[in-house]
Amino acid sequence: MAGQTLYDKLWSSHLVQSRDDGTALIYIDRQLLHEVTSPQAFEGLRLANRQPWRLDANIATADHNVPTTLKERAAGIAGISDDVSRIQVQTLDDNTRSFGIEAFGIGDVRQGIVHVVGPEQGATLPGMTVVCGDSHTATHGAFGALAHGIGTSEVEHVLATQCLIQRKMKNMQVRVEGKLGQGVTAKDIVLAVIGRIGTAGGTGYAMEFAGSAIRDLSMEGRMTICNMAIEAGARVGLVGVDQTTIDYIKGRPFAPSEEHWDAAVSSWRHLVSDDDAHFDHIVELKAEELEPQVTWGTSPEMVTGVYGEVPDPAAIDDETAQRGVIRALEYMGLKAGQKITDIKLDRVFIGSCTNSRIEDLREAAKVARGRRVAKSIKQAMVVPGSGLVKRQAEAEGLDKIFLDAGFEWREPGCSMCLAMNADKLGAGEHCASTSNRNFEGRQGYGGRTHLVSPAMAAAAAIAGHFVDVREYDPRPDMAKSA
Amino acid sequence: MEKFIRKLGLVAPLDRANVDTDLIIPKQFLKSIKRTGFGPNLFDELRYLDEGYPGQDCSNRPVNPEFVLNQPRYEGASVLLARKNFGCGSSREHAPWALEDFGFRVIIAPSFADIFFNNAFKNGLLLITLDEQTVDRLFKEVEATPGYKLDVDLIGQTITTPSGEQIAFEVDPFRKHCLENGLDDIGITLENAAAIQHFEQRHKAENPWLFRG
Ligand code: SF4
């Protein structure tokens, strides 16, 4: 018998029941809740007179709607000036309070973007099934956990039954072997993967990232990669468990206690694909060949290296693809053949569940240290992923580095990743963003998003246009504090 | 979810093909925290002459007298007669929520969009697909007859018109079972509560660190 993939193992260890129609009931270990997709689910429970199946499986935090200025945040929920947003955040607070679900409210230092908070608390553990009413739940697969994004009805279904109705996916492996060059990061790997296979390339697959370049990444880097599996069409991203995973978890609030630690670790060690496991599809990349990536269009697959050019639609044979590129260039206000390094920027956003963890901020700070944001940039903002990331960054003096360089230093939340709060792009503005989606209007009506790594975003802020971060050596005195 | 067995309902005709979910409930209302209360904003752009926003009192808004649901003769309708490809566009579950909240229980059309079809049954609506000629004939009868009601019988899978004519319809047996018994996905999953509990006990014994307290 062929061996099992990591996905196969996670699936079979959570299978409650297979049904004749090809669906299965899968047991869910952890549900993460936020204010936008949970209110109707809680209301549904109330209307049906149901109770959550297992309270301790859930944790909640508000992230999408919360303001990121200290002024608005100082007054807690009451300080949120947008009425609709305030009510959504208040509702999450009321619901979690009345049902007895642990929540990190907006005044709590543990509050933040749900996909930053879960791992940070140790609430995402290897071998778990994790769900959240948000497509970027794929992030949690970095821990060797099976993590799905779900809809509102499913949020309610999981609250009430602790199960999800699923069909088994196929297995895909993305192998990245070799060593990344200096200045090339996890974000560049995943953008290059999406560029290679396209935004539908992973549809129907659980996408496992493997190979020496993935093994060499920190947990932050692995989360960045799994976060964007959904941008390659895969609802699930995965990385096998190793010592890096285990070291990250140790000592976190929700991690296994002393009593269970050894047993947990020995069971986690099996959470890798067997050597002889079968993958339905394999994609291979060489780490040495990757350069820093920049998206030029309105889909994450519209991406190229920093020394690349905006493509010429005339050179594209496929008619549908050609029309897509023409439309994207029009929206982005770019010309065929234009150099990526010639794209002028208006704003810079460093944040989101893709790149707002401590390591991301360190990478950006290394570049920003001792330099100044270009005069032509209207706004460069850094939004930490959680209150704890913010605190850690401040303890390391990163906030000072950013502020001295002319960046804004904000309170944690989704912020300009989806522009549901006041942080948005104006029409026609170009933004270097460390988030995950460059769709039309995503960061504000008419806004033009270019996805990049945190280091590339910081370098772009300094230069006023895209530039190869590898030309920006860290200032010598940075070494000791980094 | 509310049971559906049999319903004698006033019919409102919406004579327009490709009604998308954005038309059924515009995007600004998705910021709402509720699953109910979308009724007043159902077909918001067609029903009112101004632009709606969430949380507003709709009772003082200028209504479009032309729109079918604003006509007194269709007040209290619970059966919506529609044209082909009803419910196309985005997957928002707010669309069936709005239809149900307004008071509709049955929608009859020549065809429905897939996702909407699923979402609607999940929320207690009965969607009936009839051939185009029959739907066309029903449109004419409804418009010609004030107070036109259809007797929709899910058990017998028939619709009876005021003249006594019976029209048979198809429905997926599983969906029929759910509607008849008022079962949603959750209700059905909970029928397996014992299996879930059994799994959970074993899972907890093997991985005690996944459970707190
Ligand atoms: S940071 Fe962006 S992608 Fe992540 S959860 Fe928030 S809105 Fe979604």
Can you walk me through this structure?
The complex is a heterodimer of chains A (482) and B (213). Chain A has 482 residues and is of the alpha/beta class. Chain A is globular and about 55 Å long. In chain A, the strands form five sheets. Chain A has a five-stranded parallel sheet, with helices on both faces. Chain A contains 17 helices and 19 strands. In chain A, helix 2 (39-47) links the parallel strand 3 and strand 4 (58-61). Chain A starts with 5 loop residues before the first helix and ends with a helix. Chain B is α/β, with parallel strands linked by helices and 213 residues long. Chain B folds into two domains: 6-171, Alpha-Beta Barrel (Aconitase, domain 4); 183-213. Chain B has eight helices and seven strands, in the order E-H-H-E-H-E-H-E-H-E-E-E-H-H-H. Chain B has helices spanning 21-24, 44-47, 94-102, 114-122, 132-144, 173-181, 185-190, 193-206; strands at residues 6-14, 79-82, 106-109, 126-129, 149-153, 158-160, 166-168. In chain B, strand 6 and strand 7 form a beta hairpin. The two termini of chain B are 33 Å apart. The model of chain B has no long low-confidence stretch (mean pLDDT 90). Classes of the chains: A alpha/beta (482), B alpha/beta (213). The site of iron/sulfur cluster (SF4) has 13 residues of chain A, from loops. The site of iron/sulfur cluster has 13 residues of chain A, from loops.
Attribute tags:
heterodimer; A: 482 residues; alpha/beta; 5-stranded parallel sheet; 17 helices; 19 strands; disordered C terminus; B: 213 residues; 2 domains; 7-stranded mixed sheet; 7 strands; globular; binds iron/sulfur cluster
Main pleated sheet of chain A? 5 strands, parallel
- Poorly predicted residue ranges of chain A: 478-482
**Tally of contiguous helical segments of chain B:** 8
| Strand order of the biggest β-sheet of chain A | 5-4-3-6-7
Number of helices of chain A: 17
Strand content of chain A: 15-25%
Q: Could you estimate the helical fraction of the residues of chain B in percent?
A: 25-40%
The SS-based structural class of chain B is alpha/beta
The count of DSSP E runs of length 2 or more, i.e. the number of strands of chain B, is 7
Tell me, what's the shape of chain B? Answer: globular
Distance between the termini of chain A: 48 Å
Number of strands of chain A: 19
Compute the average pLDDT of chain B: 90
Proportion in helices of chain A: 25-40%
User: Mind telling me the C-alpha Rg of chain B?
Assistant: 20 Å
Number of domains of chain B: 2
Strand-residue proportion of chain B: 15-25%
Main sheet characteristics of chain B: 7 strands, mixed
